[in-house]
Design goal:
Length: 221
């Protein structure tokens, strides 16, 4: 699917309450803000702590930013980026790929070299190892893939992520198909279970437990 994400390319949902987020397509020029939002949301996750292995939170944040920027740019280009707003600015983001679209294309070589310079060889090598392990456990057959869902830290726990996830799942259910994801946070497991996901397996990645989860297609949803 070519081109940038377009307003109206997805079903956009507006809640009746002013404080509840609006979910829709990312706008042109938002990629950097969304990437920084996701880096802040994930820099203290268990896998990020294992990969970066630094007590300095700014170091961990900088090491996360190249990866989130590459992911956001690819998802934006292929119309797979959902954004939640409670005003003019993005407060949460979700990357969800339809069957056959994972993995997203890698960034250009120059971009990868810049990311390597920021992260360093050790961190980049560990991320490559994480990706390889997750790919080995990725299910075969057609399925939707929830690659990333993050909310900026000050607004976590306020329903932004739930609104974002449910909006995307409504989109998926209208088109049929199972959904697959991985999470490295045990607290997220019960949260996803409330939305219909079940645990397929628990694996170890760099010594960190990662839960692989699946939500079967909901006929007639």
């Amino acid at each position: 699917m070519g081109g940038v994400a377009r307003e109206g390319s997805w079903r956009q949902l507006v809640s009746s309450g002013a404080t509840r987020p609006f979910v829709g397509a990312a706008a042109a020029g938002e990629a950097r803000a969304i990437a920084e939002l996701l880096a802040a949301a994930f820099c203290d996750n268990p896998l990020n702590l294992a990969v970066v292995d630094s007590p300095d939170p700014l170091r961990r944040l900088r090491a996360c930013q190249p990866g989130t920027r590459d992911l956001v740019d690819a998802a934006f280009l292929h119309d797979q980026l959902w954004v939640a707003r409670d005003g003019a600015s993005p407060r949460g983001a979700l990357v969800g790929s339809p069957p056959g679209a994972h993995p997203l294309p890698p960034p250009p070589l120059a971009r990868r070299l810049r990311g390597l310079w920021v992260q360093g060889w050790r961190v980049a090598g560990r991320w490559a190892e994480v990706f390889e392990v997750l790919q080995r456990h990725h299910p075969e057959g057609p399925h939707w893939y929830l690659a990333t869902l993050g909310v900026e830290p000050p607004r976590q726990g306020r329903g932004v992520g739930t609104r974002l996830l449910r909006s995307w799942l409504e989109h998926v259910d209208a088109r049929a198909g199972d959904v697959y994801l991985e999470t490295d946070r045990e607290l997220n497991v019960s949260w996803y279970q409330r939305e219909g996901f079940g645990v397929l397996s628990s694996i170890q990645v760099l010594g960190v437990p990662v839960w692989c989860m699946r939500r079967p297609h909901r006929t007639g949803a």
